Amino acid sequence: MNSTTRRHFLQTGVALSALAPLSRLGATSPSSPPASSSGASGAGRGLLFDRSDLPRIRENLEHPRLAEVRAMLRNADLAAETRFLTTELRLTNHVTDFMRCWRLVQNSAFAYAVWGEAPQRDLCLLAIRRLCDYKRWDYFLEGGSLTIGLQRAPEATIATVYALDWLGDAIPSDLRARVEQRIQDEGAPACYRTLYGLKYPDRVRGWSIDPEDDMKFRFDLSRWPLILNSTNLKVIPTCGLGLAGLWFQGRHPQAERWLEMARQSAQAFAVMYGKDGSYDEGIGYWGYTTSHLAILAEALHRRLGVDDRGLINYPGTVRHALAMAMPCAGEVIKDPNMDKAYNATPKINYAPTQDVVNFGDAGSGMDVTVAGWVGRNANDPLCHYVSHEIGGLKQLQAAVWFWPQTKTAPPGPALHDVRMSNDWVVSRTGWSPEDTVMALRSGGPANHEHADRNSVILKAHGERLFHDPFRAAYSPTLPHWLLRQTEAHTAVLIDGKGHQYHDGREGTNSSFAEARVTAYATGQQWMCVTSDATDAYALVLPDVRHVERTVVVLKPDVVLLLDRVQLEKARSVQLRFQAFNDDGRAQVTASETRFAIQRPLAVAHGVAYSSAPLRTETARLALPEADGVFPYAQVSSPSATRHEILTVVSTGPSGSAPGGLVAVREADGWSIRGEHRGRRYTARLRVADGTAPQFVA
Fold first, then answer.
1. Which residues have CB under 8 Å from 55's CB, separation 6+?
2. Cis before residue 413, ω within 30 degrees of 0?
3. Which burial class, exposed, middle or buried, applies to 253 when counting CB atoms under 10 A from its CB (0-12, 13-18, 19+)?
4. Number of Cα atoms under 13 Å in the Cβ half of residue 210
5. Chain segment 599-626, per-residue pLDDT in tens
6. CA 416, CA 477: separation in Å to the nearest integer?
7. Second label for 525, Cα 20 to 30 Å away, from 82, 132, 266, 356?
8. Please, which pLDDT band fits residue 182 given cuts at 50, 70 and 90?
């Protein structure tokens, strides 16, 4: 693209503001019946649904599975929201106020389309007006003056285009003209600039945070055009720009360019998913990202007949979500900071039934809204099972994409042990709260990652037992940045140090830490995996020669961890086992070479073995107690150049006695045998230098 064209796109807002408002093309509303959702695609169809779908949508919203979406729509305090929009909204605040505003646009528009209630319509119209009052639709700039859209501008573009589609003639003509103009000169160009910059980072004239915005935390954005190209923040403007292009197609000179850029960006981002559908940013970001790809693909197919619904392995990616599900038991744990102002630390109400393998910033739950859409398009009963039974349905699209009467198929034993293409490994006995789940975080860097290579999460008998903490801060200026470090994970430390991680000045981007699975095998009621994280630790301690963890799951209640560390210089090694204590009910004890993590419903007992004199102890992460207490057990091996530590872990219901398993070091490895909870266990680990340990059942 030549410089003239480049300048044209950077200044698109100026060019578009001269265009007279144009009439709506192909929008649907309750007063203009569209084509049936099962019919051919075409310009007359809705972007997400047709009028003929409304009875089914209303029925879906009465289903218990859609309770969260229904509550979001029906339980809104319209008076409080009106007061917020009228007197409380801050036009310099995009992080919270602008987000609340666009959500009111989208939710109230959907509620009005479904139930036709005037108060919802009026709230939506007011929220649209207030969105239009903002000088900018995002708090990021290029060249110090032009808006780029990473989240807020694309989110607002999606919401307003949807509102135009759903409200139809209920939007007064003057307001329609105003909001369409704002999409044309602010929303869509901001999305386009972002995607252009990600495609051509060498042409970016510097990204920064808008100095007029009251965003508290600031980051170095100089490398963001490179960093964000492989993150979820590429997909949101992709979706927003695509919906704008569809809405203004045939009515705006840039609409085709918007569509072209959106489709190119979606195709380029598709490689961020593994061929098996795995996704590196964590399961919390998976739901957000994958649903936006689906929103765009659905709108393209409905309006143009363009079929991008196979852009990624959608059935595979739903199976990825299934693998990351880790339902537990117990009570919901409320976050006491939930009502506090935004402070760059996630706020999470922990719902045990929706728990997940939370590698990185994945949070404590997953949204599987997209699973119903995938199940319908792929005729996949397992995807429908996920839609019905796993995680939660949190986005309003779920009211359209949920199919309560369709055939479902629960996962079988073939999915109990999974090594994903990104080298994440999960082994389980099933998906009930009582089942055992072990997850090992191997693999490479990713946005929103932690310093967690070779860390383990273990859940059994309804409880998290080896924990990966939630609520890691997004800003390195906050104490909870520590929760991102190796020290806060069930992982290995060398002289008290973890592996390489970044300093956070650029945000939560990827580190350089690599690990890789070197061996993986499964059998009848067992799984064995070995992960080598040498490179990750050597970036911090150059004298590291080998750091390897082997995990054996002896189902249902025994886990073996064999850690081998080799160094040029003698150093101590520590193994940490983090407890889940968000409710203050974890008890961690240690004595000699034993430790225990007790939760209200379950307990994990560990015994550590080595030729060296080991020591166990308990401690807490060095964080302000007012923000949480994070206890752990630690096994320490004295200074040496070679360390080999076998930890035998047995789990059971609360109050269960320690397992009666004994490990013996023999000439060629380890022998483990004994009884636990009425089951006899016998296993061997053959160990030799230069090769991964071999498990023999």
1. none
2. no
3. exposed
4. 23
5. 999 999 999 999 999 999 999 999 999 8
6. 40
7. 356
8. very high
Please give the C-alpha separations between residue 101 and each of 82, 131, 174, in angstroms, as whole numbers. 10, 7, 20
Neighbours of 618 (CB within 10 A): 18
Number of H-type helices and E-type strands within the chain: 19, 22
pLDDT per residue as tens digits for the range 650-688: 999 999 999 899 999 999 999 999 999 999 999 999 999
What values do phi and psi take at 644, rounded to 5? -140, 110
Topology annotation, domain 413-696: Beta-galactosidase; Chain A, domain 5 (2.70.98)
Cα–Cα distance for residue pair 393/386, rounded to 1 Å: 10
Q: The tokens 């099972």 sit on which residue?
A: 385
Which is nearest to 486 in space by CA: 364, 634, 693, 604?
634
Which has the closest alpha carbon to 604: 621, 586, 592, 629? 586
Distance from C-alpha of 177 to C-alpha of 608, rounded to nearest angstrom = 70
Instruction: Evaluate whether 452 touches 487 at the Cβ level (below 8 Å).
Output: no
Q: Is the pLDDT of residue 9 over 50?
A: no
pLDDT at 33 over 80: no
Collect all residues with Cβ–Cβ distance below 8 Å to 459 and sequence separation of at least 6: 326, 328, 355, 436, 437, 438, 465
Q: How many CA atoms lie within 13 A of 385 on its CB side?
A: 14
With beta carbons less than 8 A apart as the criterion, state whether 44 and 35 touch: yes
